[in-house]
Amino acid sequence: MPGLTKIETRNEVSLEIGFGNGVPLIDRGRVYLVREKRMDKTIRLLQDFDYSGAATMCVSRTHPDLLRERLPGSEIEAIWLSERSGDNNISPDQLHKILHRIDHFLMRNKNSVVMLDGIEYLTLFNEFQKVQMFVEEVNDMIMTSGSILLMPVDPDALDTRSIARLSRYTEVI
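Request: output the structure for the sequence above.
Response:
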C-alpha cells in the first residue's frame, strides 16, 4: 500500500505514513492527536495499520456500520458512543466502561491501534477535566501495551485551552 513504510527500531515497529507534505513517524506507545475536521487522515492511518496487521479498536461517535464502510476489509472492534442501548454501545457519560473495554482490548492485543473519536461529544456529558483524566488513563494503557492511540479532534469544536490541554501529552499530526 503506498504511503506506508515499516521501520524496525529496537525490537519495535515504527511506521512512516505519507500525507504529501510531511511524513510523520508513528511510534508505538504514543498518543497522536490528529487535528482535522473530518476523519480523513485518521481513516488513512487506520487503513495503513490494518495493512501492517495491527489489531484495531475504534471508539467513535460514528456508527460501526459507517466506520466499516470507510474501512472495507478491515477487521475492527467497534464501540459506538451513544445513549442508545446495544451490545457495542456505551453511553458517553460512562467513561469507566469505555476505559474497561479499551483495557480489555489492549490486554488481548499488544502492539495494537485504538482510535478514540468523539472527545467533543464526551465533553457534552462530562466535565472537561474528567475527559482529560480519562485520556490520561488511556495514555497509560497505550504506553504499557506498546500500542498506538489516534485521537481525531476538530480544532474548531473545542476552545484553544482545551486543545492545548489535550496536546500536552500527545504528538500532534
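The chain has one domain: 29-172.
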